[in-house]
């Protein structure tokens, strides 16, 4: 049984999934599955079940009229009678639990509530969440079907309570994951100024999708990652020019710009002075 506030007259579903605390869910499907779906080409629609997914890959999901970017470790909770579809640039695995719907009605108390997307990150240990889902899967594979299914349903109820309490008690802290990931990206860039910037690899290291990382990085720092790298390269170059006896070509190499002509051109454009002119006035 699942419950969701649903405006039937306008056919618009809110971004809130509700579940009564006293109801033990009946699981229909539980597993860890390989998933590939690019450019929202395949649409899903569950008439009889709501579903929970925990992802091991980044992508974008459309749930009804809402669109969300998700990352490794994120969870979606999707009610039944709701169409959803994906854009997954790089296929991967996710944990998937479908549980039965019985009826829909309105009530305002004794409910667990969930947004459609939950970003637990470091606040909830993702490995612990995975182990709980794996426990559910293993219970359902036991030879004693009745006992195994009952144990799996109780484990799912525990999982629902866990993430519902997290959502209730940490509305702001969940945002810290993106901030930490942005800081990590900046640190990686600064530690590797001598190397070309590979944004897909950087996004993978930060466990964010490339588009999402690019967007939040620019919002946080006021510039793109490429611009940020160039800014830090020039800051490093200025320090080396003013505080070392290294040749200009060596400095260019250390800053990841081995072509002397290109290095001089960039340096002049950003600092307003050529490297040699700056060294002369130090």
Q: What is the annotated CATH architecture of the largest domain?
A: Sandwich
Taken from the alpha-carbon principal axes, the silhouette is elongated
- Low-pLDDT stretches: 1-14
CATH superfamily of the largest domain: Regulatory protein AraC
CATH topology of the largest domain: Jelly Rolls
Helix content: 40-55%
Largest sheet: spatial strand order: 4-11-6-9-13
Q: Which H/E pattern describes the elements?
A: EEEEEEEEEEEEEHHHHHHHHH
Output the structural class.
alpha+beta
Describe this structure in words.
With 282 residues, the chain is an alpha+beta fold. The protein has two domains: 6-171, Jelly Rolls (Sandwich); 176-280, Orthogonal Bundle (Arc Repressor Mutant, subunit A), CATH 1.10.10.60. 43% of the residues lie in helices and 22% in strands. It has nine helices and 13 strands. The protein has helices spanning 126-140, 145-169, 176-191, 199-206, 210-221, 225-243, 248-254, 260-271, 275-280; strands at 6-7, 12-13, 16-20, 27-35, 43-45, 49-55, 59-63, 66-70, 75-78, 83-87, 92-100, 111-115, 117-118. The strands form four sheets. A five-stranded antiparallel beta sheet has the order 4-11-6-9-13, covered by helices on one side. The protein has a four-stranded antiparallel beta sheet with strand order 5-10-7-8, with no helix packed on it. A hairpin with a 2-residue loop joins strand 7 and strand 8 (66-70).
